[in-house]
Amino acid sequence: MAAVQATPPSDRIRLGAIGQGPRGRYVLSHFLKEPDVQVVAVCDAFEERRNESKKMVDEHYGNSACATYRLHEHILERQDIDAVLIATGDRWHAVLSALAANAGKDIYCEKPFTLTIAEGRELVDTVRRYGTIWQCGMQRRSDPGFQFIYDVIHAGRIGRLSAVTLSFGEFGGGSAGLPAPEGAPNVELFDYDRWLGQAPWMPYSKLGSSSNWRVNWDLSGGAIADMGPHFVQIVQWIRGRNAGPVQFSGDAAYHPEDEYNATPYFLNLRARYPDQFTLVMDMQPKAMRFDGNRGWIKLSDVDGSLEMSSPDVTRGFEPRQGPWKVMKPHIRNFLDCVRSRKEPVTGPEVAQAAHTIAHAANLCLRLERPLRWNPADESFVGDDEANRMRARSMRVPWRI
Predict the structure, then answer these.
(1) DSSP secondary-structure letter at 394?
(2) Alpha carbon 27 to chain centroid distance?
(3) CA gap 12, 3 in Å, rounded
(4) Which backbone phi and psi does 339 adopt, to 5 degrees?
(5) Prior bond to 112 cis, omega within 30?
(6) Residue range 188-219, pLDDT digits in tens
């Protein structure tokens, strides 16, 4: 269902946004472009971010009506809010999704939507129980460039798909080790305890709470958790099934002074499916390469450019380029599903399948040994230590 050009205020989807760092503001700016959306409130642990988002929203609507909150509870308790955008740090995605579902809100949630495999399964069950429309921000699924790849492969142009290489590019932040502790700012300026969320307590530092958190194991999952779900979901979609690999093996390098808390800065991993199809993950420039028994095609995730084994691979197809920043089709799918109550293209089970593969790959590298995986019950075969790592303890009071 396409949005009409002039949607009456009474028929608009009223949206609250939680998490307004650079990514959150970017996604929110695209929601603002949809005529059947009314953004009414923003929330962030940083006062500066709250104010920047309010300014953006108010300037868009030509008023000063957008509310700002430090605590997400104030957004979730508002009965006039229909849906929420969750674009916080990774550790908050599943917890906030569960709280929002319980509050009767539909949800557009950035990825990675979980820190662990078990967390994801709990969230899937939660949103199903409440009948929530939940879309994961894996916008490449709605990108015309990847739809082009889907069409080419399904037309048989590279033959039977046998392997896909997922290249994540350089993943910055350096060492996950936090600098010397600093005095935490005033809670109204930056609510550090709220920012940490479910993660174990750690001393405050300005650097650790800005750029470095993405490579800290307690707060995120590094390159595999960040980029992996995007690319893995495309593979699952092209293959036409959610079932994942049954074996993982590979190697990685960590910063030696920070090995326990760090995520890999180098990795090379292979994941084998029951039918011998193979996923390869590495840190080459961001791209996906699809290999078949008759040829190959590669899509850059930087500029949308194509490489291929022969011009015949795409002959007769109209090229469609769409760099990864394309947001409208994915946001539109979510909004249309809010109205129709149909399943979004990257709904809970689709997201869980993709994230599970990424998390299992991370655990394989962290444990430094091959792992066998049973997709049917989401467990590792004959490995108690790996199975314990499917979940983590959450800091009180947060839970799903």
Answers:
(1) P
(2) 13
(3) 10
(4) -80, -40
(5) yes
(6) 999 999 999 999 998 888 766 776 788 889 99
Tell me how far apart the alpha carbons of residues 365 and 398 are, in angstroms, rounded to a whole number: 28
What are the backbone angles phi and psi of residue 381, rounded to the nearest 5°? Answer: -90, 120
Label residues 194-206 b or e (16+ Cβ within 10 Å = b).
Answer: ebbbbbeebebbe
Q: In what order do the strands lie in the sheet with 306-308?
A: 306-308, 296-300, 287-292, 161-167, 278-282, 266-272, 247-253, 371-374, 379-380
Cα(318)–Cα(304) distance, rounded to whole angstroms? 14
Give phi and psi for 278, each to the nearest 5: -125, 135
Place of tokens 């409208």: 328
Instruction: Tell me the longest C-alpha to C-alpha distance in the chain.
Output: 62
Q: What angle, 0 to 180 degrees and rounded to 10, lies between the N-to-C axes of helices 144-154 and 222-239? A: 50
Nearest-angstrom CA–CA distance, 186 and 209: 14
Listed residue (156, 160, 104) closest to 127, CA to CA = 104
Residue 319 pLDDT grade (very low, low, confident, very high; cuts 50, 70, 90):
confident
Query: What confidence score (pLDDT) does residue 2 get?
Result: 39
In what helix (H) or strand (E) does residue 365 lie, and over which residues does it extend?
Answer: helix 348-367
Q: Which residue has the tokens 């292979």?
A: 270
Q: Residues 254, 255, 256, CA angle at the centre, nearest 5°?
A: 100
Q: Are 181 and 266 in contact (CB under 8 A)?
A: no
* The residue type at 241: R
Burial 384-398 (b: 16+ CB within 10 A, else e): eebbebbebebbeeb
Distances (CA, A) of 22 to 25, 104, 211, 217: 5, 27, 11, 21
| CA 269 – CA 365 distance, rounded (Å) | 8
The beta strand positions in 77-178, using DSSP E, are 83-86, 106-109, 134-136, 161-167
Q: 363-391, pLDDT tens digit by residue?
A: 999 999 999 999 999 999 999 999 999 99
Dihedral sign from CA coordinates of 376, 390, 263, 220: positive
How many angstroms separate the CA atoms of 320 and 143, rounded?
9
311 preceded by cis ω (within 30°)?
Answer: no
Q: Backbone phi, then psi, for 152, in 5-degree steps?
A: -65, -45
Cβ(195)–Cβ(45) under 8 Å?
yes
